[in-house]
Structures are given as structure tokens and as C-alpha cells.
Specification:
The chain is of the alpha+beta class. The protein has two domains: 155 residues, Ribosomal Protein S5, domain 2 (2-Layer Sandwich), CATH 3.30.230; 124 residues, GHMP kinase, C-terminal domain (Alpha-Beta Plaits, 2-Layer Sandwich), CATH 3.30.70. Helix content is 36%, strand content 25%. The strands form two sheets. Strands 1, 2, 3, 4, 5, 6 and 11 form a seven-stranded mixed beta sheet that branches. Helix 6 runs antiparallel to helix 7. The longest helix has 19 residues. The termini are close together. Bound molecules: L-homoserine. L-homoserine binds next to helix 5. Keywords: Amino-acid biosynthesis, ATP-binding, Cytoplasm, Kinase, Nucleotide-binding, Threonine biosynthesis, Transferase. Its EC number is 2.7.1.39. It catalyses: L-homoserine + ATP = O-phospho-L-homoserine + ADP + H(+).
């Protein structure tokens, strides 16, 4: 059995901790035989545990403590600590592992709720489970998530080679916003979502670039954001935003304009990985 979980981009600018989009980058878990101890075989570097302390295993065992240990093989195209949902993908893989091996018959809603409570916010885990574009909120222990179809678009990501921990990127955020800023920030998010649902990516992209919740406070951590945004605008992109907590920057661009922008960004950022991505419409998948 294989479990395949997509990476995700979160926030889309003003949809902070609420909006997310699934992407065609995958964490794949292959489930092997029962054995004495949990073992996670991967080549993703020393920072990722290979035993029962791996987050996939701890998540699965939290949900289903009686699981028999297994050998697992993990591969991942989702780069770690880059703002593309790698930790959420691991949590979702753990939930699906428990669901399959423990025969839990979890509903999508239950998976989204468990994953959100473990991750703290729904914007990466919800699209990783449901696929496509998801707007969600967590109110105390309740999670509400609505899946929508995101309009067809070209997607370019600029993935810097340096890491940025989500905790570090959240530490620079303010404790409070004034009432009037919060009202404006939320109205920008409302128009952004409405424009997406109306298939108007030009307006959605404009709103994505007007976020007041987080990008301003993170700009010193992500100095390349405003430069990429300016270049992308010159090349006719819809909009550019920080992917999750960064440091990856994501640009939505009409497909006909994507290649030219991609070449320009490759020239401007030779150290970064500039990659074309697509929307993953279905979310986590189990292959028997
Ligand atoms: N909404 C989160 C943030 C995504 O921007 O901090 C990263 O987990």
C-alpha cells in the first residue's frame, strides 16, 4: 500500500491561517511488513527521524495506539522548511496510515479536524487532505473547511536554498492589530476569495498582494518577495505572495506568459529553484 500526500501553499496573501491550495509535489509513503520496531527508510537528511519518533509514526500512534510497528519507506518532493507544507504532509500521511492500518473509516471532516488540531491551523492540512483550494477556520476544537475549484492558472515557485522555520517566521508577527486594520485586512481577504470563486484571477491576484495580516511583518526575513513581485507584475502575472510562512514565493501567471517569467527568474535567482507547478485537485490518495 502507498499513501500519497500533496504539498500545499498556504495563506495566498490575506487568507492567513485559513486559505490553502494543493500542489503537484508529493510525499509518498510505502507501507511494508509488520516487524519488531517502527522503521522509516528515507534519504531526506539526518534531521528527519528514522524510528518511532518520526512525525508520521507519532501521528499514526496518537490516533491508533495499538498499531503494530511496520517498515515504512518515505520519499518526498516537498522540500522541508520552505513553506510548501512538508510538515502538514507528514501529519496527513500519519493520519491516513492510522486510518488504513487501524481500519478507522475516518471521514474527510474527521481527518481535517485531527490534522488541524495537530498542526494548529488548517490552511496546509485541509488542502493536503481534500485537494484543490480550501478555505477553512478553526474555532476552539471545531474545524470548518470548504473546498472549491481554483481557476486554471500557471504557477511558478521560487524556492530559496535557505531554510526558514515556521516558528521563526511566526515570531515576527504582531500580537494585535488595530480594529480598523483588522476590518480592512479581512475585507481584502473576502474580495480575494470572492474573485477566485468568480474566476477573476486578475482581481484575486491584486488582493493577494494587499495582505495586511503577515507579509509586511515578514518582509525582512524574505527580502526577495518584493523584487519577485515587481518582476512578475512586469511580465503580466496575476499576483505573487509568500507561500505559507516562506521563504518560498509563489506567482500565479497566465500559462502563455509563464515560460518568459520563468527564464527571467532563473537568471535573477541562480541560487534558487524556480519550478513550474500545477494544482492537485484530489488531495491525499491511497494506492493498493
Ligand atoms: N499560515 C501559516 C503561516 C502557514 O503563515 O504561518 C505556515 O504553517
Amino acid at each position: 500500500m502507498q499513501i500519497r500526500v500533496p504539498g500545499t501553499t498556504a495563506n495566498l496573501g490575506p487568507g492567513f491561517d485559513s486559505c490553502g491550495l494543493a500542489l503537484n509535489l508529493y510525499l509518498t509513503l510505502t507501507v511494508g511488513e509488520v516487524q519488531d520496531k517502527w522503521e522509516v527508510i528515507h534519504s531526506l537528511g539526518e534531521g528527519i527521524p528514522v524510528d518511532q519518533t518520526n512525525v508520521i509514526v507519532t501521528t499514526a500512534c496518537k490516533l491508533c495506539p495499538d498499531l503494530e510497528p511496520r517498515k515504512l519507506w518515505m520519499t518526498s518532493e516537498v522540500p522541508s522548511t520552505r513553506g510548501l507544507g512538508s510538515s502538514s504532509a507528514a501529519i496527513v500521511a500519519g493520519i491516513e496510515l492510522a486510518n488504513q492500518l487501524g481500519n478507522l473509516m475516518l471521514s474527510q471532516q474527521e481527518k481535517v479536524t485531527y490534522a488541524t488540531l495537530m498542526e494548529g491551523h488548517p490552511d496546509n492540512v485541509a488542502p493536503a487532505i481534500l485537494g484543490d483550494f480550501v478555505v477553512a477556520t478553526k474555532i476552539e476544537q471545531e474545524v470548518y473547511a470548504v473546498k472549491h475549484s481554483f481557476p486554471e492558472t500557471g504557477i511558478l515557485v521560487c524556492i530559496p536554498n535557505g531554510e526558514l522555520l515556521t516558528s521563526e517566521s511566526r515570531d515576527v508577527l504582531p500580537q494585535t492589530l488595530t480594529y480598523s486594520t483588522a476590518v480592512t485586512a479581512s475585507s481584502i481577504a473576502n474580495v480575494m476569495i470572492s474573485a477566485i470563486l468568480a474566476n477573476d484571477l486578475s482581481l484575486a491576484g491584486k488582493m493577494m498582494e494587499q495582505d495586511l495580516f503577515h507579509e509586511y511583518y515578514r518582509k525582512n526575513l524574505i527580502p526577495h518577495l518584493s523584487d519577485i513581485r515587481e518582476t512578475a507584475n512586469q511580465f503580466g502575472a496575476y499576483g505573487t505572495f509568500l507561500s505559507g510562512a516562506g521563504p518560498t514565493v509563489l506567482t500565479l501567471v497566465p500559462l502563455a506568459k509563464l515560460k518568459k517569467l520563468q527564464s527571467k527568474l532563473e537568471r535573477n535567482y541562480p541560487q534558487a529553484m524556480i519550478k513550474e507547478l500545477e494544482i492537485e485537485r484530489n488531495g491525499v490518495e491511497v494506492i493498493h
